[in-house]
Specification:
Helix 23 crosses helix 24. The protein has 28 helices and 54 strands. The protein is 29% helix and 25% strand. The protein has 1328 residues and is an alpha+beta fold.
Length: 1328
């Protein structure tokens, strides 16, 4: 019988499993091989070597490594591989060129304009994948936008100018591409040696004709690989679609090269088709080798594991308890969820590249067996750096660092006698226990010396395991609770080589009582390939409204796409009985951005499919967000068909029925294992509850008959896995599974005394509370700003009002929220009672600018306030003189909208709607030229969402108090503050040594107002006075800045200067005495306008602080706030008309530093907002984005060059659009440092038709507002960053500057970054 082999090539290990025969039939055999993914001294390619070893085992013949592997006994190979992921991470793909619409050559470089790490001054963005960009002189535009008031009839235009796109949108062809010009450009690329190209043109998702033209010409010239974006993924959003096409052009040739090299290691079996070769895609489906493409291969490896645990753990015929997949490998841990359906995401970022493709929602957590261990700033830290496979953890005998696997080995949770002996130069040595002991002994001495404690080696090493477990639990909680699920109401399906050692600890932390491990748990990603189906998907965009009148057209389009899918599966050899399809509609409510991919529902009887997608979508939306919007239309954005070719009839693989029979049958073979007779050995293992136990029984799984129960503590050894059964847990062995019942056990009592391990744990727990508050707010809010742009912060405070934890990290909110809480404490004193909730936004009460409304709720315990929780969200409108409440020309605070010092929005549990209406609508509308909020119902909905977020925080705080006691929780709140305080004090002491304790700097606002700072540092204590004496007076304008924002800017700077992760709380400012002259621009009177202070002056404060510390040159120093829209209150008539509005902030250049060049086209310092994709912008509003590119040579010259700003050229397509710009650095240049030149100033131009019919250019200056006509354009040229060091200097700076404000990386090891929906949320939350 021929073999079928499945292979998962992971980051550390390659897992292989071979099958001969069918399960349950005579002669059935399995062959398992586990080997290092990289071992160049012994073999070139791990999958080839794995197949060779399995064939040797199966045929009992020796197959030399230097000869092609015979495929005579090989029926098929299925593989999940990290080839594409590695090529992306290491930037080792095929050299490729990008062809893109004129005006957009830098679009993929700018991306969404946010920076990856908000506290990293040396901003690093992953390199783009293309080596060269060619602009194509072509352009199409949508005929009408969603906001168009002058709707154009398509019939009024010639057919060659106006065409209907695939989605149903009508497009206007503005510029037809010149074929000869394109041919010359392509020939030039080909002559330069490019073999692979990507093409992405504006609106090609709906109108692909111009891309097809380029594709045909490229084929004629002879390019080996051509990626057209509309074929790769026909979805709106030019940036991710362009990235997807470029990723395909970059990665697919690599995959083809790998496949060619792989098949050359064999005889002609693969080439002739005698042996099938299939690959796993990111969506969990298999695809033939000839259809395996790069951009769909990113999650090829872990996808098999999700399929594996889903089909071996989810009890579809019993209780249908949802399953959390926990795949802990050598490099990282992957977390996912299965409730009977695979959860997909359609836009993810990997290695800095945002790709549009269906992918299983697999969330990577930076804690695997190879995650490195550190003691840093008095805390135990695990990851995100990983030792990987090479050199691997210290125990791998390759000189690697201490990692999680080393901790498990030292504690006895890994037994070297049972672990494969594949280490050392001859691949025949066991794990190295001695080097691990030596390294941990040295680390323990350092920790005990630093803390003044005398902890045992076991306690210290187990501390790292506890921190690793909490690191992994935090995203699991977020993944489940973000979708409205109770984490404890899940089964934990554990797999991966390291999963079994952590299973009980993870489950206990999460409150999960049941763990399921399939017998192939350590190689489940490979085994899952055997269970996977072949998948072929097709998708096209749509603009249909989901309603009865459009159903016939929808059904016709679905039928056509289904036919396409089924025909392809037939071509691959699947007969009719093996082929099926799933229909998905990507649906969203009109006026929102949150589209949900909705599966076609079944009728009530379940025997047929229904076309009631509306009900299915509403149900899905309610589950995800907690409410529905019945008054809004449902729009169909995309139609997606998933064709499935069944490759095997799946046997019953879950344990439920067998466990039920064991529990109910009197004759069932069930027994508790006798440890004395059944154990294979005894081991010395450390557990928290018991300490080290020297006689823990070790059992071999194959010696345990089905029905055996193993009581903990115990270790169960499989061929490729070690499973730790902790005390108070028991493991039931069935024919295919181990099911662990998790008892509560005895937890070590935590006292109020500072303990570094618990400090790390509480840091995670406090941040988890703030994060889960944020997820609740995002789920239950309604506005774009909060739900989709995540422009909010949630935070936890002590009873004294001091900040404990803040998430997400929006720099301008850091520290400011604490002022708001303190103000309310002083205002109400002892009058607050349980059930009260406070609303505030006034600058004098700790506010930032008025659209940021803060909701504060006290947390009571036994009748006393013990904590506060607060949430601050940017509301889309709160009244004032202009829509959006961000006027560029406001002079008084009332012109910016509602200003509320303190209001009990909930009094003793009762929501005060009338009070809210009066404050947000009636009062602001009573001022001259002003209107009340234009979005009252959205305000109310978002305020209720903030209240709900606070309530979530209260619940979690009380749960933490119940778990540890109030005294312990409050003690660790103070410990964590002191930890942050210590890090800042150390920074200040280092700086004082180099500058004699005195630093000063000044800079100017564009109106000439001075920002003056003198920093005086006490080098002995690490205290500092930040004295702003000499700063200019408050202004009759809106660049005045509340004191709370000044505090936020200083916290931000200190965190950047420390250069390491520290808890961001009020402890950061404990050593700082901030002195601000009253009635200055940094401490204005209550009536002064402040909207520009929040977004402009805050940036100048940062520039001044960093200049004083000699940290880096100035960045663009501005947010470039652009608003435009129609409607609102007519000042002459007083009438209010419906309209629309749009607001964006625009990137610029960042400043260079002592060892880095500035970054171009990014947001800097106090903001990090994303920018709207060009296609979305034009679909929603009557505008044409003519150019969005890097502004060349706008960064200051120097030894290290400042980053360049951007050019953004917008043409308006209707009359009467009010355009406003609020910006800085149009007069005073961003400064250079240490001889570096200044960056260029920004420039705002209005290009319009003058009265004589000629085009005229007007300088709008930094702050202005004007009505634009049809055809008028605004061209924004944003500032560049300053340079650092004289350009003619030959000094080579190799480390950060001498005063020690920056710390070098801990090691040059790869960092594992969060991915999946959690990674996307984290990225969004830090770019709001």
């Amino acid at each position: 019988m021929s073999l079928e082999i499945c292979i998962d090539r992971g980051g550390t290990f390659t897992d292989c499993i071979g099958f001969r025969g069918k399960p349950g039939q005579p002669g059935y055999e399995e062959f398992v091989v586990k080997l290092l993914s990289e071992d160049p001294a012994n073999y070139k390619d791990a999958p080839t070597e794995g197949i060779r070893r399995i064939l040797e085992m199966a045929t009992k013949q020796t197959l030399p490594r230097d000869k092609p592997v015979p495929t005579t006994d090989l029926a098929s190979v299925r593989m999940g591989t990290t080839v594409a992921t590695n090529a992306l991470l290491e930037r080792k793909g095929e050299s490729c060129a990008l062809l893109i619409t004129k005006g957009y050559k830098d679009l993929l470089t700018i991306g969404n304009q946010s920076r990856p790490k908000i506290f990293d001054l040396s901003i690093t963005k992953p390199d783009v994948l293309q080596d060269k960009v060619v602009e194509i002189n072509e352009r199409v535009a949508l005929l009408n936008s969603a906001a168009s008031s002058d709707v154009i009839d398509p019939a009024s235009l010639p057919e060659d100018v106006c065409r209907q796109g695939i989605s149903g949108d009508w497009v206007k062809i503005l510029q037809v591409p010149d074929a000869e010009e394109i041919k010359r450009a392509l020939q030039g690329l080909h002559d330069e040696g490019y073999k692979s190209i990507a093409v992405c043109l504006m609106h090609s998702y709906t109108f692909p004709d111009h891309e097809r033209l380029i594709g045909d010409l490229a084929k004629e010239i002879g390019f080996a690989h051509i990626s057209l974006s509309h074929e790769i993924m026909p979805m709106i959003k030019m940036v991710p679609r362009g990235n997807s096409a470029t990723a395909d052009a970059y990665l697919t040739p690599c995959i083809q090269t790998y496949i060619q090299g792989f098949t050359r290691g064999f005889d002609d079996g693969f080439a002739t088709g005698r042996t099938k070769l299939q690959f796993m895609q990111s969506d969990g489906g298999l695809v033939p080798v000839d259809r395996f493409s790069g951009f769909r291969a990113i999650l090829s490896g872990p996808a098999g594991g999700v399929v594996g645990y889903a089909l071996t753990s989810f009890e579809n015929e019993l209780d249908q308890t949802p399953v959390i997949g926990f795949d802990m490998g050598g490099t990282s841990t992957d977390v996912s969820r299965f409730d009977g359906h695979f959860e997909h995401v359609f836009e993810t970022t990997t290695a800095g590249v945002t790709i549009q493709a269906p992918q299983l929602d697999i969330n990577t957590v930076a804690a695997g067996g190879g995650s490195m261990l550190f003691f840093q700033n008095g805390m135990f830290v695990v990851g995100p750096e990983s030792a990987g496979a090479h050199p691997g953890p210290a125990c791998y005998r390759k000189g690697g660092p201490l990692a999680v696997s080393d901790a498990n080995l030292f504690l006895g949770r890994l037994q070297p006698d049972y672990f494969p002996k594949i280490f050392g130069p001859e691949e025949n040595q066991p794990l190295d226990v001695d080097v691990v002991r030596a390294k941990f002994t040295q680390l323990a001495e350092e920790i005990n010396t630093a803390t003044g404690e005398s902890k045992s080696l076991d306690e210290i090493v187990y501390g790292f395991i506890k921190v690793a477990n909490e690191t992994m639990c935090r995203p699991i909680r977020a993944l489940t609770e973000a979708k409205g699920h109770d984490t404890s109401n899940h089964v934990l399906a554990v797999f991966g080589g390291a999963g079994g050692q952590h299973a009980c600890g993870i489950a206990r932390n999460l409150g999960i009582s049941k763990i399921v491990l399939y017998r192939h748990s350590s190689i489940l990603s490979a085994f899952g390939l055997a269970l996977a189906d072949v998948v072929h998907e097709v998708q096209e965009p749509s603009t249909l409204v989901l309603e009865p009148s459009t159903l016939p057209e929808l059904q016709e389009r679905v039928a056509h796409l289904k036919s396409t899918c089924l025909d392809e599966l037939a071509r691959q050899g699947f007969d009719e009985s093996q082929r099926s399809t799933e229909v998905y509609l990507n649906l969203r409510y009109d006026g929102t951005d949150c589209a949900l991919m909705t599966l076609q529902p079944s009728n009530e009887g379940g025997d047929a499919l229904s076309w009631d997608f509306g009900t299915a979508f509403t149900s899905l939306y309610k589950q995800e967000f907690g409410f529905s919007l019945p008054e809004r239309s449902i729009l169909v954005d995309d139609i997606r068909i998933r064709g499935i070719g069944k490759t095997m009839e799946q046997p019953h693989l879950t344990p439920g029925k067998e466990i039920h029979e064991l529990a109910t049958s009197a004759t069932a073979n069930k027994r508790v294992v006798d440890r004395d007779t059944m154990r294979d050995a005894c081991a010395s293992v450390y557990f928290e509850a018991t300490g080290r136990v020297d006689d823990v029984p070790v059992y071999r799984l194959h010696n345990l008959a089905p029905g055996s129960t193993v009581e903990g503590p115990a270790i169960i050894i499989d061929a490729t896995a070690t499973i730790v059964v902790e005390p108070a847990c028991s493991a039931l062995v069935t024919s295919q599974h181990i099911t662990i019942t998790v008892g509560k056990g005895e937890k070590k009592k935590v006292t109020t005394q500072l303990e570094p391990i618990q400090l790390s744990i509480f840091s995670h727990r406090f941040m988890s509370i703030a994060e889960q508050m944020g997820r609740t707010l995002q789920k239950t809010s309604i506005s774009t700003n909060i739900k989709e742009r995540l422009d909010f912060s949630c935070a936890l405070f002590g009873a004294d009002g001091g900040l404990v934890a803040n998430a997400p990290h929006i720099p301008v909110h850091l520290g400011a929220l604490s002022h708001a809480v303190t103000y309310q404490m002083n205002y109400y004193k002892d009058e607050l009672k349980e059930g009260d909730v406070i609303m505030t936004n006034h600058p004098a009460a700790g506010g930032s600018h008025l659209p940021d409304i803060t909701i504060i709720t006290p947390v009571f315990n036994d009748g006393k306030i013990v904590f506060f929780v607060a949430s601050r969200g940017h509301h889309a409108d709160i009244g004032g003189i202009s829509p959006g409440s961000m006027p560029p020309h406001s002079k008084e605070l009332y012109q910016e909208g509602a200003a509320i010092k303190s209001f009990k929005i909930v009094d003793a549990g009762q929501f005060d709607y009338e009070g809210v209406k009066q404050l947000l609508y009636d009062i602001p509308g009573s001022y001259p030229g002003c209107s009340g909020t234009r979005l009252l119902q959205d305000n109310v909905s978002d305020l209720k969402a903030q209240i709900a977020a606070n309530q979530k925080g209260i619940t979690l705080v009380k749960r933490l108090i119940e778990e540890y006691s109030l005294e312990v929780v409050q003690a660790y709140m103070l410990h964590i503050r002191r930890n942050a305080e210590l890090a800042v004090r150390q920074l200040l002491k280092q700086v004082a040594l180099e500058h004699d304790g005195v630093l000063d700097a000044c800079d100017f606002m564009d109106d000439g107002t001075r920002i003056q700072l003198k920093v005086t540092i006490d080098s002995a204590e690490g205290n500092a006075v930040f004295d702003f004496s000499g700063t200019g007076d408050q202004v009759y304008g809106n660049t005045n800045t509340p004191e709370s924002v000044c505090h936020s800017a200083i916290i931000y700077c200190l965190r950047c200067l420390v250069g390491q992760d520290i808890p961001l709380n009020s402890g950061c400012l404990t050593p700082i005495d901030i002195r601000i002259p009253p009635r200055s621009i940094l401490s204005p009177a209550e009536s002064c306008a402040v909207v520009g202070g929040n977004v402009l002056t805050s940036q100048r404060i940062v520039d001044v602080v960093l200049k004083a510390f000699h940290a880096c040159a100035a960045s663009q120093g501005c947010c470039n706030n652009l608003t435009f829209g129609k409607g609102g209150k007519n000042e002459e008539t007083g009438e209010t008309t419906a309209g629309w509005g749009y607001y964006e902030t625009i990137a610029g250049g960042s400043g260079a530093g002592p060892h880095w060049h500035g970054q171009s086209g990014v947001h800097t310092h106090m903001t990090n907002t994303r920018i709207t994709d060009p296609e979305i912008l034009e679909k929603r509003y009557p505008v044409l984005l003519r150019e969005f590119s890097i502004r060349p040579d706008s960064g200051g010259d120097g030894q290290f060059k400042g980053g360049d700003g951007v050019i953004r050229d917008i043409e308006f397509l209707e009359d009467g659009i009010q355009v406003s710009i609020l910006s800085e650095r149009r007069v005073f240049h961003p400064y250079g440092l240490q001889g570096g030149r200044d960056g260029a100033c920004g420039l705002n131009l209005w290009i319009r038709s003058d009265l004589d019919g000629q085009r005229g250019i007007l300088n709008l200056s930094g702050k202005n507002s004007a009505p634009f006509k049809k055809g008028d354009r605004i061209v924004l040229q944003t500032p560049g960053g300053g340079g650092y060091g004289a350009s003619d200097s030959d000094k080579q700076t190799t480390k950060r500057d001498q005063h020690g404000a920056y710390h070098p990386p801990r090691q040059a090891y790869p960092i594992v970054k969060a991915s999946g929906s959690l990674g996307a949320y984290k990225s969004m939350s830090e770019s709001a």
